[in-house]
Specification:
The complex is a heterodimer of chains A (202) and B (307). Chain A is mainly α. Chain A contains six helices and three strands, in the order H-E-H-H-H-E-E-H-H. Mean pLDDT of chain B is 84; it is low at 1-48. The chains are: A mainly alpha (202), B alpha+beta (307). Chain A binds chain B through residues 1-13, 17, 19, 21, 30-31, 34, 59, 62-63, 66-67, 69-70, 72-73, 75-77, 83-84, 87-88, 107-108, and chain B through 32, 40, 42-43, 46, 48-52, 54-55, 60, 63-64, 67-68, 70-77, 131-135, 137-138, 252, 254, 257-272.
Chain lengths: 202, 307
């Protein structure tokens, strides 16, 4: 039974956190794990969308979320936060990006700051699970291109064409009916006039 | 004669310590206060941020005084219902017995019912070297040197046989755990049993005692040189070149930046806010009643119910 540490306050992450960290095996042990994650977090902040192995992506995602939430909580005038950003971002111009671009972008969001997708893997052979890790609000086109309200989707193009055709036929029918209806109404008028005579004939 | 000698020497030492303490208290600072003071004007422009508003909840300061009200950070051992019931039980126990604010490094006097003699009590005075556990299992360890023999007693904070906890000297030390007192010279963990409680003026922050202890020569119980202790003065004297090399090899400087490791050891602000909102009112009430009745409070021992 442990007592929670109270010296530091952290805000809750909006992503799932496993009870224990994943080891990322390598010859350098825990230090190597952190080095790998530093590279990944730097790449994520730099390119905003990266494809990599699932385990490493999930670990790096948590660290990136923590880094951004620390930056949002404490701002750029907090020495420990600046040290942390300096440690995690290997390219120093990204520290400016973190505090000047990402903090305003995510300051008032209620969602997580990153998204993790399962990436396709080759059908045959032993393969490691792949994933795509991206920052929300990145400038690239959406990965999940299954929006049913997309106008250029082939189904929607066909449906639009079908609707248009149906509308055209309806209009054509109506146009035909306009002339007929006048004739019909005239006939009906004449019929109503003649109607009382018919039973007499039968 | 020997007893008298020991008594007088300990008193002399106690008096010397008292003088030293007076000086230290003026110089001491509280780290969390110092951190708050360095707020820049630039920060104020982003006042509306929700995260910061969460972190500025005044209830959060309770976490230093009542750390055992926070649940275990390990998600495998979490159970929201059990935690809630435990909190209500802890409050009930606190309404029966005055459990004061204390920290690692404070000097306490604990009176507890003697399990082997009905109707009798044991009183032990010592420095708190560790606080651990959460909920009803919260515990603390007192250390003292009695007749040149180091004694440590572990007490459960919410033990029903506990009769009183009195803080003789409220202060913090430079480290979170003072296990190195086991290998330090005995004078650093010797406290007289007839020590008078020192009363701090109200509203003063808890003083940090910057005393640095001197360790006895090796062998030690632990490898103190690898633990980055602030409260030890002479650790380098006892090290060989081999130990310094191994300390370098074993150092983990990256752990300071391991954000998820820190996260897994703490309870997030949002969860803490819920917990403190739940217990805040009763804890404040208890604090008020303690202020008014602390002088009057007496503990009556239950009468023996033999035939």
């Amino acid at each position: 039974m442990n007592q929670a540490e109270v010296s530091k306050l952290v805000s809750k992450l909006r992503v799932k956190v496993l009870p224990r960290h994943r080891n990322l095996p390598g010859p350098k042990g825990p230090e190597g794990r952190i080095d790998k994650l530093r590279k990944t977090v730097t790449g994520l902040i730099k390119f905003e969308r990266i494809e990599l192995n699932y385990n490493r992506a999930d670990e790096a995602r948590q660290y990136a979320e923590r880094l951004i939430s620390e930056a949002i909580c404490h701002g750029d005038c907090h020495k420990p936060t600046m040290d942390t950003a300096d440690f995690w971002l290997l390219e120093k111009e990204l520290v400016h990006k973190l505090f000047k671009v990402l903090v305003p972008r995510y300051e008032n969001t209620k969602l997580s700051y990153t998204r993790l997708y399962n990436a396709p893997k080759p059908q045959y052979g032993r393969s490691i699970e792949k994933a795509v890790l991206e920052l929300r609000g990145n400038p690239y086109p959406d990965l999940l291109n299954n929006k049913s309200n997309n106008k250029l989707l082939i189904q929607n193009v066909l449906l639009d064409a079908a609707k248009n055709e149906y509308r055209q036929t309806k209009i054509a029918e109506m146009a035909k009916n306009i002339g007929k209806k006048e004739g019909v109404t005239q006939n009906r008028d004449s019929k109503t006039n003649e109607a009382p005579e018919k039973p007499n004939i039968s | 004669m020997a007893l008298a000698m020991r008594r007088s020497s300990s008193e002399l030492f106690g008096a010397a310590k008292w003088f030293i303490r007076r000086d230290c208290r003026v110089l001491s600072t509280v780290p969390e206060r110092a951190e708050e003071a360095t707020v820049s004007p630039k920060r104020e422009r982003q006042v509306q941020s929700r995260l910061r508003a969460n972190a500025r909840n005044p209830n959060l300061s309770l976490r230093h005084v009542y750390p055992e009200f926070l649940p275990d950070p390990n998600p495998k051992w979490r159970n929201s219902l059990r935690e809630k019931l435990e909190r209500s039980d802890m409050l009930k126990r606190r309404s029966q017995i005055d459990i004061p604010e204390f920290y690692v490094g404070s000097i306490l006097a604990v009176t507890i019912a003697d399990p082997h003699a009905q109707g009798k009590t044991n009183r032990f005075v010592g420095i708190c070297i560790e606080r651990k556990g959460c909920g009803l299992r919260a515990e603390f360890t007192l250390r003292n040197v009695v007749d040149n023999q180091g004694v440590e007693v572990r007490y459960d904070l919410y033990d029903p046989t506990m009769q009183s906890i009195q803080v003789l000297r409220l202060e913090k030390r430079l480290d979170d755990k003072l296990f190195y007192l086991r290998d330090a010279l005995p004078e650093y963990s010797t406290f007289p049993f007839d020590m008078d409680p020192e009363i701090l003026p109200e509203g003063t922050p808890v003083p940090v005692n910057p005393v640095q202890v001197k360790l006895k020569p090796r062998p030690w119980l632990e490898r103190w040189e690898r633990q980055e202790l602030k409260g030890v003065a002479n650790i380098e004297e006892h090290l060989k070149e081999k130990d310094r090399v191994r300390r370098e090899l074993r150092a983990t400087p990256w752990e300071k930046y391991d954000l998820m490791k820190q996260y897994r050891k703490t309870i997030p602000v949002e969860d803490q806010n819920d917990i403190w909102a739940e217990v805040n009112h009763q804890l404040r009430q208890l604090q008020l009643t303690r202020k008014t009745t602390s002088r009057k409070r007496t503990f009556t021992t239950p009468k023996p119910q033999l035939g």
